[in-house]
Each structure stands twice: as C-alpha cells, then as structure tokens.
Amino acid sequence: MRPELRLPAMAQPGEGIRPLVLDTNIVLDLFLFADPAVAGVRTLLQARRLDWAATQAMRDELEHVLHYPHLQPRMRYYDTTAQDILAAFDAGARLAPEAARAPYVCKDADDQKFIDLAVAQRAILISKDKAVLCMRKRLLGLDVQVAAAIAIEAPCAVHGVQT
Hints:
Blueprint (H helix, E strand, L loop, with lengths): L3 E5 L9 E5 L1 H10 L5 H8 L3 E5 L1 H10 L6 H6 L4 H11 L1 E2 L16 H10 L2 E3 L3 H4 L2 H5 L4 E3 L1 E5 L10
Parallel strand pairs: 1-7, 2-3, 2-5, 3-4, 5-6
C-alpha cells in the first residue's frame, strides 16, 4: 500500500492554507484520469485549503508528457485535449520561481524539481514515484510531507472517534 497523508475534513482553528506540490503523474490523475485516489487532493484544492505551487519546468514537463502516444486514446476517451489539461493546470497552480537544490538528491533526476520546490515551500508533496516516496523520512525533517495520496478523515462522530 502506498503512503497516504490523512487530513481532517474541516480546517482546524488557525490553520492556514498549506502549500502543495504535485508531480506530473498526479496532475494527470487529477485532470485526465479522474483517479479516485486523488479525490482528497481535488476536494482540498477546491476548498482552498491547499495552495498548489508549480514551476514553469513542471508545466513544460506536463506539456511534453501530454504528447505521448499512449495518452492520446485516453484523451479521446475522456473527450479532453492537451490544451484543456494545460488550462486546468494554469487555473489551479500558482507559478513559483525555480527552487534552489534541496539538501537531498533524488535518484531520479527528473523528480528533483518537485523535491526542490517542496523543500523551498515546506509543502506537501504528492507523488507515486518510488524514488520520491523512499525519501519521505528525510524530507519530513525539512518540513515536507510526502505521500502518494491524501485521505480526508471523516469528522468526529462521538467523543473523538473517527467514523
């Protein structure tokens, strides 16, 4: 089972908007595949409890990936285009400057930009990439929570018991 971050359904008193970094596969899950595993991310973004930060390099990567031949039948099936997905990215993400290199280096150089930005923003980083997920403990020491998904905890029913 992939690690998931559990967040309460309702914002806690004094809780600010938390920064969020999404890797490219999670963006595809959000805007192309409508993967139920990203429902928590979608809900918290729509509630403005998360602030999705991305860089131009992340957008460029998404634009490149959207032209992969194996994604074309999926886009036709879901009646969407690369332009639609990029427009959703542009509407949902806050463009941030490229971040300085984080103290920890990912085995997959393509994923380093996500780690760098997450560290710079002290963000939640959502990724299904094994090379990123294996860095969870180290990144937690830099105030970065890494998970493959976000689960929204049900409100307390009786005496603080989760339902």
